[in-house]
Design goal:
Blueprint (H helix, E strand, L loop, with lengths): L1 H40 L2 H28 L9 H34 L7
Helix pairs in contact: 2-3
Length: 121
């Protein structure tokens, strides 16, 4: 009976010690992951990647605007002459707006490219 009691105590202690070390390991892994994430968030590559994602979104929106502008007269068969003239003027005005936006984006991109990257040494 004494051996059975000792065996149960050893088994219980083993389970609790195992859980303790497992929890401690998870805490250390979480701390390491947070440290890596913090280091990567300030890295120049990550900052450049975020800038490129933003530029990609802007370019995508410009392309969508161009397609919508050009598609506005695609079904012009059932329009009257006055509506057709109005739609053509609106499309021409939208083309100028998109052209101006595209020039601004290209100028901003060129300015960012012309600034030298700092050497993180």
């Amino acid at each position: 009976m004494l051996y059975l009691f000792l065996a149960l105590c050893v088994l219980t202690c083993t389970v609790f010690i195992g859980r303790f070390f497992t929890a401690k390991t998870r805490l250390v892994e979480k701390t390491i992951e947070e440290m890596i994430e913090r280091k990567l968030s300030t890295s120049p590559m990550n900052v450049e990647l975020a800038r490129l994602r933003e530029a990609n979104g802007v370019m995508r929106n410009l392309l969508i605007d161009i397609v919508e502008s050009e598609a506005s007269l695609a079904d012009a068969t059932n329009m009257s002459q006055i509506e057709m003239t109005r739609a053509t003027k609106a499309r021409a005005m939208r083309r100028r707006e998109v052209f101006g936006e595209a020039i601004l984006v290209l100028q901003q991109t060129e300015q960012k490219r012309s600034t030298p990257l700092r050497n993180p040494a």
